[in-house]
Amino acid sequence: MPAVHHNLTIPDHKTLRAEATREVEQELGKLARPDDRFKRACEIVQQADLEIAAHSEERNQAALSLWFYDGVRGLEKVLGITHNAYVEMRRIALTGDPKANINPGGDPRARMTPEQRIAAALKAGVPRLDSEEAADRLPSLAATVSVANARRKAAMPFLQDSALALTEEPYGWSTERIGQLGDVTPKYVRDVKNVAARRRR
User: Fold this and answer.
1) What is the pTM (predicted TM-score) of this model?
2) What pLDDT, on the 0 to 100 scale, is given for residue 3?
3) Taking a C-beta distance cutoff of 8 angstroms, is the pair 123, 105 a contact?
4) Count of C-beta atoms within a 10 Å radius of residue 199
5) Residues 19, 50, 70, 97: what is their CA dihedral angle, to the nearest 10 degrees?
6) Whole-angstrom distance, CA of residue 195 vs CA of residue 2
């Protein structure tokens, strides 16, 4: 059974991530007060987390369906992840274990036949999506997750550093007060400020 070929667009993940990072750094860099910076960084991280949660599963399902049922190759490029992360995604879908050997007979050089891929996916309960719809939606879902991850990653150092600054003089805020500002728990504030403190050493 030959692989189905789709005309999949490969998002320019490098450019998308760089633009998202630059936007966040510019926005947060303009905020002089640590309380303003902390609050806005929390909003960016929380929004990114919502977008990742809302789109990652659908993205993964589209990619897994295209791989297992249609044999589409090279999807890690569309997803914007490393080959190893993509292999782990497939392993988790089949076994729940990112390190499991899913090759036939445990032979690292052996590859599943199309029939074996389909049978394994059906047994594991991997949803079978409409091929054209999955191929059409995957690039935009992948781009959305990629940008959200970049925004989150760019905001975290600002969030961490501003949390630390607010606990120090001249502010001396409690973690409870900082947490209320960013709609996060005091423990979260302690954790992020500790990351900033370790980075400062």
Assistant:
1) 0.89
2) 46
3) no
4) 11
5) 110
6) 50
